Structures are given as structure tokens and as C-alpha cells.
Amino acid sequence: MSVISTRLDRLVELESQMEYRNPPPPGEVEFTYRPGDLPILLSAPHGAAHTRNGRLKPEDEYTAGICLMLAEQTGAHVLYSHNRSLHDPNWDRNVPYKQKLAAILAQDGLRCLVDIHGSSPNHDFGLAVGTMRGCSLPGLRAPLLRTLRRQGFSESGRGLQRLDLDNQFTGSGGKRQETVTRFVWEQLGIPAVQLEINARLRI
Description:
Elements lengths: L2 H13 L15 E4 L3 E7 L5 E3 L2 E3 L5 H12 L1 E6 L14 H12 L4 E8 L7 E4 L10 H10 L12 E3 L14 H9 L3 E7 H4 L1
Parallel strand pairs: 2-5, 2-6, 6-9, 7-8
Antiparallel strand pairs: 1-5, 3-4, 7-9
Helix pairs in contact: 1-2, 3-5
């Protein structure tokens, strides 16, 4: 079996643990934190269905599984949603997911957050990076872009090799929205980036 097949099998296995539309059991929360050794926190707030302005929105499939697999390979910390939420952690303020984020980042001395989301297959990019136009990732934006370019993603790329930088998804949100990236940078002072993965790469 090839390395790629093994990794895909592991990704499917990890993702199968998510209960996209089911609420958490009574007395439990809809997300889980797994500590690591690397001072980076991976976040998947839309790993399961969530509620925005009273309407249920579907999960970003495989974002939680991707975070868990990356954590296995790198030793990063990970916080991910696995059951349906009554809130949208990437929109609403003062919700349990963000409260947990604040507690983790205060106690563990983590240096950066990577917030992973899934975009529609209709977008004309493979990956989109949102750094609040450079504000939320001081000193780390250039190394991140170099790494992505080495993996074949660039702003001049075509199709799924195209990298969208602070354009369609800036990580800032709108007037009523508080993104995870914005919350972590503005409220906690920790570098953060929003990464959107096209559905044609994730699924």
C-alpha cells in the first residue's frame, strides 16, 4: 500500500469519528481539545454542523480530520468540533468554543493558531489564506507563503494550485462577525491565520 493510500485511509478513519448533525450527549460539549508538544494550535470550528443567525449550516467536511492527522504528524495541539453546535464559533462572540480557545492559549504558551475551514468547490482556488491583510500573522506570513509555494500553491497558479491571499477570505470577518482569527489576534494577542481548503481538495 502506498504512503498516500495509507494517509487517506487514516484521514477517513479520523473523520468517521465526527457526528456532523448530532448534538453532543447531555452534559458534554460539541468540541474536543487534544494537547500536543508543538507550540501551534490547529482549530476546526466547523468540523460539524453549526448554527448561524438561527439557521443550521452544514459542516466543513474533513477539516476536523485534517487537523487531527496534522496533529498526529507534527505534535501540534488541536481543538475541533465533532457534534452539532447551537452557535457558530467563527461568527458569534463569547461562545464556548472561543472561551476554550482563550483558556488553552493562556495556559499552554502557544505561539500561533491555524484555523482551518472548508470552502465551496465553486471557488477558483485550491487554498485561501486569511491574515487580516497581514495584521494577524506578524513575522510568520512570509514563511507560511514560502512553505505553501514549495508545495505547489501560488497566487499565479491555476485551478486547485491557485493560492488566494487575503482576498475572498481575509480572516477579518464583517461588522457583525468575529472570526476565530480576529478573536485570537485582537483579544489574545497571538498570531493567527485562517486557511480555507477547497472542497475538491478536501473531499
